[in-house]
Hints:
By secondary structure, this protein is mainly α. It is about 85% helix and about 0% strand. The chain has one domain.
Amino acid sequence: MTFAPSAPAAPPTAPAQPPPGRESAWAEGVAKLRAAATTEPGRLRIIGAVLAALVVLFGAVTAWQISGRAAAAEDVVSRSQPLSADAASIYRSLADADTASSSGFLAGGQESRAVRDRYLADIANASKLLVKAAANTEGSAQSQREIALLNEGLPRYTGLIEQARANNRQGLPLGGAYLRYANEQMSRQLLPAAQRLYEAETGRLYRDYDEADSWPLAALGAGLLAVGVLVWAQRRNYHRTNRVFNHGLVAATAASVVVLLWLAVGHTVARADLGTSRSDGQESLKVLNDARISSLQARANENLTLVSRGAVLAADKKSDKYDVEYAGNMAGLDSGLARAARLADDEAGSEPVQRAMSAVREWQERHRAARATDVRGDYEGALVQVIGGRGSTGASFDQVDAALQEALAHEQREFSSAARDGLGAFGGLTAGALVLAVLGAVASLLGIGRRLSEYR
């Protein structure tokens, strides 16, 4: 039997090789950029894209930073400073109400309608401003707490004053106790709360100032970078083509330089005006508010010295508590007026302060005379010297208060004028930066495009 030869075994097949894997999109993009950069047209396209991106970035960063600073300046003018002023007015109204109530108490049945109306107007003004403050301080938990405390304590204070007034008109000595307790509520609860509210709102005002006048370093840096790269691109173009100017790149550089100068000059002017409003306006307002508050507290303590008639002693257990506090208030008033005189930068601001200082000296002389009369046991004579008409300490206090009110009104006008000038310096810069940046980017692309057309 014959057998057919077997077929040779097939050689083993090599395993199939997988197709080469694709690179990532980022790697492909880098490879394309690298390939494009090997030719002059490719390099020009890259330069054009970078120039346009830098100019747009400069405009966007400028618009972003300036819009934030303009918003802070707007808050200084129309929000935080008015709230600070309202908080100061709340304090003044409460202190003046306490002064008017003690003056009316001393007059007894002879209380004038003007004194009564002044007290009622102070309470109404404080209540109105508390409602306004509550509606505009939603972002401040501290301010809300102080407003709630004031809203709770003010009706209690007015109730005590009415009880003191009613007892006093009946000739009952209990009226003096009610008045002293009302004054204690005012000095230990209401006025400290009003002071904390004022400090909180003034702190927010200064934060707005700091934000508004801080330098836009990112925008300035982006502007310098954009202008520098544009100048480099034109220099490169000159060395490779011997053409002195590329109109598109020149236009883009001009637009960027305009935005950079506008940014630097506009912010410098705004910063200077806001600084003036702060140093010549707000600082003077703060000092004058403190001085006026000291005068109101001094007047209230002067009245209470006669109301208590030595029933309430100071810590040394010898001196009259209210007379000691009066002396401290007057010392604060003297130092406040001296500082206000130094801060006053024109005749219209310094003249009422000088007038107040003169009236304070007269007030102190009349107070010493009234105290001497009271110490001799002549209560009725001392009463005339304190709450009488012309020649009384009350007349001197009215002169001080009127002069301080005039000085405050002047400094408020100074603040408003300078702050609005600072806000105006930001005007148009945000929109102008965006428009010029877009024009600069387009111009840079057109300039590079003109150069690319030479290769077609």
